[in-house]
Please model this.
Amino acid sequence: GLTILTFFLTKRLNSNLTATEAWQRMNWPRLCILLIFLDSYLFIFASGILVFGINLQKNTTACAAAIYLCVSFYTSSKVLIYAFLTEKVWIVWETSSGRSRMRSPVYLVCMVTVALYGAIVTIMVIGGIAELRQSDGLCVIGLKPTASIPLLSYDLYINVLLTALFLWPLLRSEHSTARLRRVATRTLMASAVALTTSTINMTVLTVLHGRELGWICLASCGTDVVFNAAALFWVTSGTSQ
Model:
């Protein structure tokens, strides 16, 4: 995971930030991509230290740290991904109309949806589980049903919303340029991969009643963020982002 994320991050740094002028021209989508890669890298790195360095087993403090690590880095990565996809939705829908972000109903709907994720994060923090299993002392982390079910519902909702918003311009292709159709197609595929992996991850956690062994939970979330990063790296390859 670290090797893949290092490759993504260095490629974007080399291609976008080789001069001072590049920093000055930095737009929000480019910055968002860099932050997603950096956030994912730090999550995998910190998870590795907890699992292989400090050791989660029979360590109450490390076990508690694992759930907070997972919630903080995982959710911040998701917020950045949703923000990036919202920007792409605005580009696909409003380039031809020329409407600004604050005058675009589609953009505002997406922003309100992303803002609602703040409530989900709060519920996740309150509903976090971190305990040592009495039988063998293994670290078990996860989310209570009061947190995992709202998170799963939100993932399903935003998955359907963003898929529909990228799919609709393709179905009405006569009203868009070839470039916008290409952007919509690539972003639709990337968002489908990113959002589906998240939904599967949360579904598995919910089916397991919100409890997984610490290292398994961190590994599944780590796999999720790596898949997300790979999808976004692909969608921004060969484009101005």
